[in-house]
Amino acid sequence: MAPSSRHLLLLLLATTLIVPSASSHDDGGAGKAVYTKVCDESRFEAAGLVMSRYPYCNASIPYADRVHDLIGWMTVEEKVSNLGDWADGAPRIGLPPYMWWSEALHGLSSTGPTTKFDDPKKPRLHSGRAAVFNGTVFANVINSAASFNETLWMSIGQAISTEARAMYNLGKSGLTYWSPNINVVRDPRWGRALETPGEDPYVVGRYAVNFVRGMQDVPGHAGAGVDPMSRPLKTAACCKHYAAYDVDDWYGHNRFKFDARVEERDMVETFQRPFEMCVRDGDVSSVMCSYNRVNGIPACADARLLSGTIRRDWGLHGYIVSDCDAVRVMALNATWLGYTAVEASAAVLKAGLDLDCGMSWIVQDGKPVMDYLTSYGMEAIRMGKMREADIDNALTNLYMTLMRLGYFDGMSKYETLNEEDICTDQHKSLALDGARQGMVLLKNDDNLLPLNAEKHAAVSIRGPHAEAPEKVMDGDYTGPPCRYVTPLEGISKDVKIAHAANVTIYFGGINMHIEREGNDREDILLPKNQTEEILRVAEASPNPIVLVILCGGGVDISFAHGNPKIGAILWAGYPGGEGGQAIADVIFGRYNPGGRLPLTWFKNKYIHQIPMTSMALRPRPDHGYPGRTYKFYDGPEVLYPFGHGLSYTKFRYELTDATKGATVKISAAGRHCKRLSYKAGTLHAAPSCPAIDVASHACEETVAFNVSVINHGDADGAHAVLVYTIPPREVAGAPIKQVVAFQRVFVKAGSAATVGFKLNVCKAFGIVEKTAYTVVPSGISAIHLENGDSSSPSSVSFPVKISFYA
Ligand SMILES: *[C@@H]1O[C@H](CO)[C@@H](O)[C@H](O)[C@H]1NC(C)=O
Ligand SMILES: *[C@@H]1O[C@H](CO)[C@@H](O)[C@H](O)[C@H]1NC(C)=O
Ligand SMILES: *[C@@H]1O[C@H](CO)[C@@H](O)[C@H](O)[C@H]1NC(C)=O
Ligand SMILES: *[C@@H]1O[C@H](CO)[C@@H](O)[C@H](O)[C@H]1NC(C)=O
Ligand SMILES: *[C@@H]1O[C@H](CO)[C@@H](O)[C@H](O)[C@H]1NC(C)=O
Ligand SMILES: *[C@@H]1O[C@H](CO)[C@@H](O)[C@H](O)[C@H]1NC(C)=O
Ligand SMILES: *[C@@H]1O[C@H](CO)[C@@H](O)[C@H](O)[C@H]1NC(C)=O
């Protein structure tokens, strides 16, 4: 069938069959639970089928056997028609169409064809179902990351999946969500920094694990001993975009054609690390491959990256989906190996892709842009380029995931969720609390903040973001928020706004015209006229002003940092629907900011030293190449370092168990010793066993310590403790330092909280050597903590001696 006529048919099917038991929806009662599942006797009867004839609907048979049965009924045409995100199902045997593509980056998103909020301006298509106009929009991920609070990240995932299940029950959404975005922010110009948890691979990985577990885990079915192939899923999350994807469009280098030239060491240490954590520790049920090429090969056609690494090495339980529409891009834009559409389709399936996300609703040249696998799969089979067995394998991965989601049998725990479970007070307050937790105080001369509502009876509000519209505050991948508070509205609740007040708050920053998907920045400055306006306002004000900056990636605001008339600077990210309230709570001291920057804020000069297209993390002084992220760059072009963040109180660290150092002895017998490079002149002779290969070691050794976080200021507050390790200083090419653990704690003024850490030696002291082995080096490493508060710095360091014995 030609793509266009097939598409028409799909549209018809979709409106009638996409919701498995359409009739049960016509209960007329808003508020009443409506639930849908494939294996519903009445559905089969209505279609003239007898359900008991289909073992795939027999809930007492193991999932794998049911899936085998289901695929066994399907003709090859039916199989092929289910390899795209807008899947036909097989109505002949009772399997309805399913739309795979939903998004939930920081709340249910309208992006993609599946999740549909009702439009108040349009009459409702399904009059019997309750309308849902809005969902909870949490702060953007870069904000949440700044909280360094794993509980928050998981809670957000839990709240979103509850709203997702409710929308699914109402026939307005799917069960499979292509979130989170866990690409590391390698370069400050990247347009999608706002969508991500920042520049540190470990922090990004922990974000992924927590968000995914919040989205997926069904209480009581997540622990050890649960069969990962049948473990139920609340919703299915997806870690994207794999791999080495972080150029969108920079001076004509666009993501569709970009070939990321990546050393294997950087691949393991930086680009793949969050994905490995997402799969191994988060047990995510999907990974999405990216548009770009990695060392010449399109990511979605790379068997080593897909079948080899994700599925075999990391043991994915789930499916691999292409970015939408990476397969077409491979043939049309990357023009890889001159592949035809048929050859590209065959190549991705062979490499281990299970599902092709297309752009089915985009019409180009009068035709819908279909996904390639369903459009060209049959031809590929006829030409002998695609094996039916590979299709069966892909479908198995897909239907196993749907089985675990209760798509076939229902999931009683979530069947009663409905519109009343969306935008609940609990979710709205989580969004508000999350937005507050992510605010980062960058500068606060003479404790200008917090403002005192009595003392500062009137404030003057200036700047382009004072009345920032939803699309600025909410960022991207979002739906209509439950509630929307602008900064001005938030501030107005406390104060009188006046033109001639003695305190001015300027709301500036950038927006999605400047940083967004498909658009990287050319500089990291504020717009010139905004800089000029801020300086004018500051100059004209009798007292120092407060500057609130909205942005995802960092901006070079050196001009403001160094200006005594700009007394305080607050980074608010893009804080979501409750953002205006969260900003006001921080400004007036109802919430003491405890966020820390999850990425380095560079000075603009830095970007002139490094092309965005160079992937290497490590510096090359001989080439004038400065290196990237706090782990490798230690030059002067940093405005605010990774981890920077002030507070209204003061925190000091004390090592409570008085460790002056730790010694770890590891038997090297039977271990694989690896060589390391050393800095010139640091060692007389290399040790006989310089480092052990982590893969050959049981990795049971730990280093534990307690640190007391003392609040010696006069406000209660939360503080995020970041723990770094520093590799032995003689080792060449090692990171300057690396985050290995973190914990956010609340401490009352005048008291202290003890935080305990137990670090696994391989995980915390492991480094990736030149040939990409993860090794533990012998010698003296260090554990290092610093509070990130340049106005009241405190740090703790102690050596950890690691030695091997034969
Ligand atoms: C479902 O499978 C079980 C186990 O194989 C079998 O005993 C039962 O008869 C099946 N039910 C139906 C309706 O076929
Ligand atoms: C991809 O290739 C098609 C066909 O040549 C072209 O129409 C389209 O603009 C290209 N897209 C990009 C992003 O370059
Ligand atoms: C809820 O969504 C509707 C439809 O998009 C929008 O018009 C309305 O403003 C939203 N409500 C709030 C409080 O933002
Ligand atoms: C602002 O004005 C109020 C009332 O005029 C005054 O009490 C307060 O001290 C002023 N604050 C500053 C920071 O000048
Ligand atoms: C800066 O210029 C742009 C484009 O002319 C304009 O839209 C914007 O409002 C100006 N911003 C300020 C702060 O003056
Ligand atoms: C940390 O403190 C806890 C509670 O007091 C204690 O049980 C533990 O042994 C301490 N850890 C270390 C490494 O001293
Ligand atoms: C971490 O987040 C959770 C969930 O929002 C919150 O209850 C808790 O107070 C936060 N912890 C700290 C120390 O801020």
Automatic annotation (TrEMBL):
Give yes or no: UniProt keyword Hydrolase. yes
InterPro entries named among the record's database cross-references: BXL, Fn3-like, GH, Glyco_hydro_3_C, Glyco_hydro_3_C_sf, Glyco_hydro_3_N, Glyco_hydro_3_N_sf, Ig-like_fold
The record's section on SUPFAM superfamilies has: (Trans)glycosidases (SSF51445), Beta-D-glucan exohydrolase, C-terminal domain (SSF52279)
Any idea which GO molecular function terms this record carries?
Answer: alpha-L-arabinofuranosidase activity; xylan 1,4-beta-xylosidase activity
**Keywords carried by this UniProt record:** Glycosidase, Hydrolase, Signal
Pfam families noted in UniProt? Fn3-like (PF14310), Glyco_hydro_3 (PF00933), Glyco_hydro_3_C (PF01915)
Gene Ontology biological-process annotations = arabinan catabolic process; xylan catabolic process
- Asked if the record carries the keyword Hydrolase, the reply is yes
Q: Which Gene3D superfamilies match?
A: Glycoside hydrolase family 3 C-terminal domain (3.40.50.1700), Glycoside hydrolase, family 3, N-terminal domain (3.20.20.300), Immunoglobulins (2.60.40.10)
Tell me the leader sequence span.
1-24
According to the entry, every stretch annotated as the Fibronectin type III-like domain falls at 719-791
**In its UniProt entry, what is this protein called?**
Fibronectin type III-like domain-containing protein
